[in-house]
Amino acid sequence: MSVRPHVVAVGVFDGLHRGHRAIIDCGLVRAQAEGAALAVVTFDPHPDAVLGKAPAEPPLTPAREKKELLTAWGVEQVVVLPFDRELAALEPEAFVERHLLVALGMTRLVTGQEFALGRGRKGTVPFLADLGARRGFAVESVPLLVEHHGPVSSTRIRGALKGGDVGFAAELLGRPYALEGRVVHGHGIGRTLEYPTANLDLPEPRFLPADGVYAGWVHVPGVADGPGPGGALRGAISLGLRPTFDGADRALEVFVLDWDKNLRDQVLRVDFVDWIRGQEKFEGASALVAAMARDVARVRAVLTPQNSA
C-alpha cells in the first residue's frame, strides 16, 4: 500500500515558539499547494540531554503538549521519535530513508536554516538539498526569526523565565508560558489565612519560571465566563518553597480571585502574565497576609480586561 505524500517538518521544537511557528506555517502552505498532508517529526528526550552537550533541563514543552499544540495548528501527523544513541548514530541518508521517505512518503522537507540531522550533524541544509535532488524531494529552509537584538529561540525563552520575565517569554512564544496540573490536597495554610490556594501537581517534568509570585490567568474546566481569554479567571500564582513556613519542597499554588467553589481534582492551566514579586520570608502569618493582600491587589490591576486583550 502506498504512503500518502507528506510535506515534513523536522526539529526538536522545544517551546514551539514563534520561530518554530514560521516553519510550521511554511509547511502548511506548501502542503496545501501540493495536495499533501503536513507531518512533523520531533524527538523526545532532547538530543542534547542524551548526547551530554548541555545540562539536562526539563522541557519547555513536553511531548504530550507538543502534540496537542501542533495538532491545533493544523498539523495532520505528529511523529515523536525516541531519541537515543542508536538514533544519533544513524547517517543522514539512513535517517531520511527510514523515517521520512519510507515512513511518510516525504515530497518536501521544511526546516530551519541552522538545522542538521544524523551522525555528527552531517545532514545540514545544503547536504539535504543535494540528497533531495538525488532522491526526489525538495528542501526548503525558513530564515531564522530575529527580534529584540537576537534570535527567537528556546535558549532565550529559558533565560527570560529564569529571570521571572514571563512577559518577554510570552513575546517570543507568541502565547503566555503555561503550566497545567491537577489540584491536590495541600497543607491548608492558605485557607487558614483566608487566601485558599489550589496546589497543582504537575504530571511531568517541566521547565519552571523563577520562584516568585505572578499574575496569571487560570483556566478552569467548564468555566467560560471569567474576564480573561477564553473565560479564564484571575489568579495570584505562587511558585517556590514557602519560606515563611520553612517549606522544603517546591510548590505551585494559585489563589483564584472571585471564586469560592471547590477545585479539588480539577485539572487547571495557569498562564503566566506578569511578575509581581520574588519569594520572601515574612515575620509571621499577619505579615504574610498583608503581603498577600497587596499581591492580590496588584494581580487585579495587572489583569484588567484591557490588559488581557
Characteristic terms for this protein:
single chain, 309 residues, alpha/beta, 6-stranded antiparallel β-barrel, 5-stranded parallel sheet, 10 helices, 32% helix
The overall pLDDT average reads 91
General shape = elongated
**Pairing-aware structural class of the strands and helices?**
alpha/beta
Instruction: Report how far the terminal alpha carbons are from each other.
Output: 49 Å
Give the number of helices: 10
Give a quick account of the main beta sheet: strands, pairing sense, barrel closure. 6 strands, antiparallel, barrel
Radius of gyration: 22 Å
The beta-strand count equals 15
Classify the beta-strand content into a percent band: 25-35%
Low-confidence stretches: none
Query: Helicity level, as a percent range?
Result: 25-40%
Strand order of the largest sheet: 10-11-14-13-12-15
Task: Note the run of SSEs as H and E.
Answer: EHEHHEHHEEEHEEEHHEHEEEEEH
Describe the structure.
There is one protein chain. By secondary structure, the protein is α/β, with parallel strands linked by helices. The chain is built from ten helices and 15 strands. The strands form four sheets. A six-stranded antiparallel barrel has the order 10-11-14-13-12-15. Helix 1 links the parallel strand 1 and strand 2. Helix 7 runs antiparallel to helix 8. 32% of the residues are buried. The model has no long low-confidence stretch (mean pLDDT 91).
Give the SSE map.
Elements: E1 6-10, H1 18-34, E2 37-44, H2 47-51, H3 63-72, E3 77-82, H4 85-88, H5 92-104, E4 106-112, E5 116-117, E6 123-124, H6 125-135, E7 138-142, E8 146-147, E9 150-151, H7 154-162, H8 166-173, E10 178-184, H9 189-192, E11 198-201, E12 212-219, E13 233-240, E14 251-256, E15 267-277, H10 285-302
Helix pairs in contact: 7-8
